[in-house]
Each structure stands twice: as structure tokens, then as C-alpha cells.
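# step 3/5: fold
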Amino acid sequence: MSTYVMSDIHGCLRAYRLMLEKIEFSDTDHLYIIGDVIDRGEDGITILRDIMNRKNVTMLLGNHERMMLDALSELELPEDEYRPHFEHWCINGSSSTLDQLSKLSEDEFFDIIGFLLDLKVRMDIEVNGRKFHLVHGVPGDKDASEEDLIWGRAGKYDEPYYADRTVISGHTPTFHYHDDGSTDMWHGNGVIVIDCGCFIERVDGKLGCLRLDDMQEFYTSQY
């Protein structure tokens, strides 16, 4: 049995399927996906439905899932009324997600909404005696706002966020952290950023997956 963490798949179905094959993901393993499954790539809803059908996958809320929920809440407004959340989502890669949603039955659509509404925004787990704090954006405990947890960006700090836990975060593509523009996972002081820019072909982005049992890194490409 192994425990894995993945983030920011962004509709990249090929990379996602290749990753599950590469790590030989089985029913005895567990996978945590820390947000941003949808948008940008073509198959976010397909991946999301796959996650929903697996009992050994736990997903956390990302900012793109939040944007989707906020945008869809405005659909009942009159057509001539300003819809700020919907506009915000549209300029952040929603078209592929909207296209897939439009092809779902009503029951399938509301199953997805219900699933997303129930997602947590952070989680603390322990693997082989080592503690981890999983979050899409920046870490925080009970008093932290959802906005910070899913929109904040992990920083390069001299002191770790926690003395007893390693933070694993997504949201910000790792080439922003590496001086050489690498898209490998970035290891800071007490924090590991695993958004390897899967959808961003121009920087040779890839999908990253971290095995928490031994901290081995795995990578696949959408292209």
C-alpha cells in the first residue's frame, strides 16, 4: 500500500492516465489530489468523474473548482445582469469545462456539484510517522480563510510554516520557483510545491505525483 499526492491536473487526461499506469495505482493505494482538476485542458470533467468513482482517491478543493461553483451560482440571474464570478471563470480557462458540463444529464450535473460542495480545503495526514499538511494554495489551520487556502501562493521563506508538518501545495507552477525554469517539484523549507505546469506546453510542463512513503517523484506529460 502506497500513498500519493497529485495536483493541478487541469483536464490533462492523457497525463493523468499515464501517471496511474506509471505508479501502478491499485485498490490498496491511496491518492490525494489537492485541487484544480478542471479547466484549461479538454477533459477536466472526465477526470473529475473518474475521481468520484474511486473510493481510494481523496480530492481537496482548488481555486478553479471554487470559480466554477461561484460562476454556476450566477446562472439564475437575468441575462442582462452582470455576472462577475462567471466572467472571472471565463477568462481563466472555463470553456472546455463548460462544454463537457453541457453534455451531462441533469443528475450527472448535480452529482458533480454536490461532490465539489463537500470537498475540504485542507487536510493533515500521516504516512510512516511523517506528518503532512495538504492544501491547494497556502497552509492554514481553522482560522484561515478559504480564499487564502485556495488562492494564496506558497512562499520562499527561511522558516518553515510548521515545525512538525511538511506542507504540500499546488496552485503555482513550479517554474516560478526554480531559478533555471525547471518544472520539477520545488522543495522549500518545510514545503513542497507539486504543480508542475501540466497544461503549459511552452515550458515543457508536466504532471507530477509524489509518493509520500519514500518521497519518490513521478512525472508524465500531456504532449
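# step 4/5: annotate
The longest helix spans residues 106-117.
# step 5/5: archive (pending)
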